[in-house]
């Protein structure tokens, strides 16, 4: 009888020990983990539009070598609320990327003469915390007016036939004298002398000194100063 009781007690203890093990296995099954997703992505940043601002550095009233263009990217947005970082700039000449022209400002060169210049801007966010970190390139669509205003289609073209400057030579120093023959020298944006193909107008300061009057018949590249020109200034205008 005692033996049977001992066997029963032993079996009970074994069952009691098994219970926590079964519960532990059951608990582990309830904490099953799924296969991980791919990395979370956001949405690309966007610029609403891009313009350019023209600066007439030599104040000659035309686009010419040495003048500068500055890109103006506007209306940045990001659907995920990501913060904008420095954008990527690329200037183009007749739709071909200009090597090394990757700053917000670009200076016109002789190689740009006769070509259409514009800029493309790519919006960026911090690549260490955002994906994607770049948006679509947006091309300049407004600005570029010679007066620096926002009018224009977002491009600039250097007209090789436009007069960039005109100078006067042949005068006595420091003041021109009656009888001096002055010579106009017009230079086009190409850097070439274009006096022969330009329209020349010699002008004299008006009596009040507040403006300029065309000198009748003085339309050649040279002008000989007359006695009636004394006490007034002379200038020349060259146009194409």
Commentary on this structure:
Keywords: Signal. This is Invasin family protein. Residues 1-31 form the signal peptide. This protein is mainly beta and 240 residues long. It has two domains: 46-157, Immunoglobulin-like (Sandwich), CATH 2.60.40.10; 163-239, Immunoglobulin-like, CATH 2.60.40.2700. 12% of the residues lie in helices and 36% in strands. It contains one helix and 14 strands, in the order H-E-E-E-E-E-E-E-E-E-E-E-E-E-E. The protein has one helix at residues 2-30, and strands at 46-55, 68-77, 84-93, 96-97, 105-107, 116-125, 138-143, 156-157, 163-169, 181-188, 199-205, 212-214, 222-224, 234-239. Strand 3 and strand 4 form a beta hairpin. The longest helix is centred in the first third of the chain and has 29 residues, at 2-30. It is rod-shaped and about 115 Å long. 19% of the residues are buried. Mean pLDDT is 90; it is low at 1-5, 7-12 and 16-26.
Question: Could you give a quick summary of the protein structure above?
Answer:
The protein contains 1 helix and 14 strands, in the order H-E-E-E-E-E-E-E-E-E-E-E-E-E-E.
